[in-house]
Amino acid sequence: MAEFVTVELPEGEARGVAVLRIARPPMNLLTTQVVREVAAAAAALATDPRVAAVVVYGDERVFSAGDDFAELAELDADRACAMAADLQRALGCLAGLPQPTVAAISGYCLGGGLELALGADRRIIGDNVKLGLPQIKAGLIPLAGIRRLTLLIGPSAAKDLVYTGRFVEPDEASALGLVDEVVPPDDVYTAALAWARQFVDGPSRALAAAKAVFEAGPHGLDRARTEWAELFHTEDRTVGTRSYVADGPNSAAFVGR
Questions:
Q1: Which positions make up the signal peptide (predicted)?
Q2: What are the residues whose beta carbons fall under 8 Å from the beta carbon of 57, sequence distance 6 or more?
């Protein structure tokens, strides 16, 4: 049983939206245990056929205020070297989910919390949120977020955020493309659920294929050929193409196979 992460699954056998919550109050600081619990929960959701999409959330006050520097202060170089690859994979776990994933961000999203959120397909924040990667102020760098941040907002803006460690307000975050939607604080969770629910009746295999191509980066063209061809083995492709011809878009009853 996880101590600091909870998962709400769709009820019964019906497909729906799962909610993965970080629950280490008051600020949801990320220890190595918390990060590993998030990764373990994500791995379980990835293989659950009931899960059509995933919302990642903290609570109404905070998503995650970042790394637990008290823990990091006690690490020696050998231990840090031994755990770096494991932690890097864990912080990037949301990108490996085959389902569409949205981070619902309240309060603060800093350091490792922002690195985790960067792996989601979409980031929705309240209009009072502060974001940033302040690790440089502790003599460190982001372990998992630099590449993904650079792809998202470009190298110049990414270097500014990483080198300075400064906080970003909602308007700037939206202008940079760091987040996708800014809403009133009380609407963050419901907006994330609304985005996720549109995939409940969607073609899960095709969505997973699209995610795999995006994640392939510079090898995306090769991966797209493979994923596209493999979809011709799926029932959803058969249903989707035939219904599209007969009745147009939005007419298919996908079955997730």
A1: none
A2: 19, 20, 21, 22, 63, 103, 104, 106, 189, 192
